[in-house]
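QA checklist item 7 of 12: single-chain prediction sanity check.
[x] sequence parsed
[x] length recorded as 245
[x] structure emitted
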Amino acid sequence: MVDRQFADPSIARLYDSFCAGRRDFDFYLPLVMSARSVLDVGCGTGQLLRLARERGHAGRLCGLDPAAAMLDQARKRSDIEWILGDLGSVGWDREFDLVVMTGHAFQVLVEDDELRAALAAIRSALTENGRFAFETRNPLVREWEHWTPDDVAEVTDDAGAVVRSWHEVDTRIGEDVVGFVQTFASPSWDGPRASRSTLRFLDRDVLKSFLVSAGLAVEEQFGDWSGGPLTDTSPEIITIAGRSA
């Protein structure tokens, strides 16, 4: 089931505003621009692909997302393929030079079986020399401990109304799964709107084992969006992988 923050049109249209100034695009955009064909899995509003087209990318750009409300925003640009669905609903065979998952979308793959199936589909979609680029939060940093109602983000919608958002962790499942609620509220609404999400925080070694089992080999890893080395205190585990021999 799609989280409410992506399925509710009134929230989905605010997604880019809440994510303004994303540093990850500085990392991913050069990769996209250098690839002839690109698949963005969990593309959301399609901002990365739209930016690539604006910068002159002339090849194939394809965005895949299960949330219709997010794709409604993406489809404001019609010269990009937008597909409603997930990796289980498509069957590409060596069609993309680059597959990306941004915005920590990789972490929504919570169960082992869905993670294995997604990685198998991604490997199948890659050309022989294609690469898969994605990130997941480093569990050693325990970022979820900072997701509290005291940490509030605020944007203004098209009508001039202020919308506020905050997170609150409500569930720990095992060692690496965190459940939380993200609440959105505005004086112009009839009440707050809560969106429940669950994310998996894989450590470096477990992540590598899943990739290897899927026939993918880690080529590079970084710990931040400046391309710094991956350490125990790095906020991110940014990975570029390719088909293994």
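[x] summary fact logged: The radius of gyration is 18 Å.
[ ] second reviewer sign-off
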